[in-house]
Description:
Blueprint: E1 2-3, E2 38-42, H1 45-52, E3 57-64, E4 67-74, E5 77-83, H2 88-103, E6 104-105, E7 110-111, E8 119-128, E9 138-146, E10 156-157, H3 160-172, H4 174-177, E11 183-186, H5 189-195, E12 200-206, H6 226-232, E13 235-236, E14 239-245, H7 248-258, E15 261-271, E16 276-277, H8 281-295
Parallel strand pairs: 2-5, 2-8, 8-15, 9-12, 12-14
Antiparallel strand pairs: 1-10, 3-4, 4-5, 6-7, 8-14, 9-11, 9-15, 13-14, 15-16
Amino acid sequence: MQATIRKSDTFIGESELILREDGSLYHLGVKPEDIANNIIIVGDPERVQIVSSHFDQVTTQIQNREFVVHTGIYHGKRITVVSTGIGVDNIDIVLNELDAAVNVDLKNRRPKAELTKLNIVRLGTCGSLHADIPVGSFVSSVFAFGLDGVPYSYDVELSQSEADLQESLKEEFYWLSANANHYTVQCDMDLLERLGKDTIQGITATANGFYGPQGRSVRLQSHMESRIDQYAAFTYNGLRITNFEMECSGIYALASMLGHKALTICVILANRITKEFHKNPSASVESLIRQVLDRF
Length: 296
């Protein structure tokens, strides 16, 4: 996915990129020196502390609302962990402010001429759409598709592989063909090879809700229950739609448009076919954290 990038001599107004009195970014509260080039994204604010507890040294700790940022050193590598909360709307905030921290001169309010490329890895949890992808499995998202439409807020163009998959999805599912907000986006293949090479790989459906949009009926009847089986039956170039979650497509879209690398690896906590939920989710999350930290 590519987008129009503003030139380095473009002034960014105070209402467009809001800074605090200390010069830090409005939502994340970070300054350029607070952000490492290697970034782990988690949804749950409490998971930031779990990740950073593995660091040899924690140098930065910042918290505002659901956004928690820890930066430190792990085996000689500088890494930042940041929580986003739930949903692609928050991803739009986090990715834009992480990019601004490294690629905007915050004093002069202009994009930098020389840009920094970030490595961004989301460690999340999700639900499997296949009985043969059991709870506790690690799934890497080669592609993701979303319905939120956030990338269309920007001047964006899909790559050929993304456009091909999007067309296949539209041909298969009438509700995607009718949804103008639908988009498809690919991970960074270098990160996939380095960090997710021995995980299950597939296509991720990024939902814009947890209950009805993912086919869950509690008191309200979801009319999307049948879509779990329909999604599960879809294949594209040997890839299945493996899982539901709520952030991946937004991370891939914003990262690729801004020139960064991104990958999502999730632990399967719920199997939507067998109706099983993980009995010890923290153990699998801990295992994934250790694996990614060692490979980063």
